[in-house]
Structure formats: structure tokens, C-alpha cells
Design brief:
By secondary structure, the protein is an alpha+beta fold. The protein is 39% helix and 15% strand. It has a four-stranded antiparallel beta sheet. It is elongated, with a radius of gyration of 19 Å.
Length: 152
């Protein structure tokens, strides 16, 4: 995917700190000295080109409810079916295939730990697989961002 100058500037400026206001795309446009229409078109191009997966906040899970990392050991023949089933839960916000005995890893969030426990019990009953529940013990914050700067 070719990234144009506006896309580069938008990514560098707004990977972190999207404006919290009634018209965030207009505020982004003003900061980038372009139109709101150009910002929205740029975001759409990035999404359709596979360079953008989502726009939204990242919440401190412990203030918004509860979450846990979960792993399943899924037989290869059932992998697609089980992954699709896991993805059907609105409480699941990430789902990854890994090279390991525990090959399907996902994050479950909910309003309470009891809600998460109920979801994990339901997944176990529906799949016949036992979820490995890996709740976070401590958070180590990193500023994950990838400045891309000017085109080479």
C-alpha cells in the first residue's frame, strides 16, 4: 500500500491524542491544514488499503470493568470454526492465532469479573475446550506508536 503525504502526516500526528471534541475530524483537518472531507477520505483509503484497523479510544480496563487474556488449545481441524465462534462474542476484542499448544489467544472484557467468568464457562461448554485464563497482574505501560515521517 502506497502512503501519501497527507496519510503520513495524519498518522504521525494522530496515532495518539485524537481530539476529544464534538467534531474531531474537523479539528484534525485544522491541525493538518486541510479539509474535513480530505481527512475522512484519507482515513477511508487507509482502511480500505489495510493500513488502518480502527479509530477509537483505548480505555483503562480496570476503570471500565474487567478483562483477561485467554488461551485455548484448539485442534487444527476445528481452528476456523472455534475462532469464528469466539469472534461472535461482543466481549472479545482481539483474537490471534499463535504457534503453540495454546494456539488461539483472545482478550475478553466485560462489566465485571463475574461476567467474564460466565463468558469463559459458556465458551468451555460450547466448544468443549478449557480456556486458560491469564488475568493481568501488573500493567507496564508503553507508548506504542510508529512515526513514519517523510517518504523515503
Amino acid at each position: 500500500m502506497q502512503i501519501d503525504t497527507l496519510s503520513r502526516r495524519l498518522i504521525d500526528r494522530f496515532q495518539h491524542g485524537m481530539p476529544l471534541c464534538a467534531e474531531p475530524y474537523r479539528a484534525m483537518a485544522e491541525a493538518l491544514d486541510c479539509s474535513e472531507t480530505e481527512v475522512l477520505a484519507c482515513l477511508e483509503r487507509l482502511e480500505h488499503g489495510g493500513g488502518l484497523s480502527r479509530i477509537g479510544p483505548v480505555f483503562e480496563h480496570s476503570r471500565a470493568g474487567a478483562s483477561t487474556l485467554v488461551a485455548l488449545a484448539v485442534p487444527e481441524a476445528r481452528l476456523e470454526q472455534v475462532a469464528e465462534h469466539i469472534n461472535s462474542y461482543s466481549e472479545v476484542n482481539h483474537n490471534y492465532l499463535r504457534e503453540h499448544h495454546y494456539n488461539l489467544w483472545f482478550v475478553v472484557t466485560g462489566p465485571s469479573r463475574a461476567h467474564i467468568d460466565a463468558i469463559l464457562a459458556q465458551i468451555s461448554a460450547e466448544t468443549g475446550l478449557e480456556p486458560l485464563d491469564l488475568p493481568m497482574q501488573a500493567a507496564y505501560r508503553i507508548d506504542l506508536g510508529f512515526p513514519i515521517g517523510e517518504a523515503p
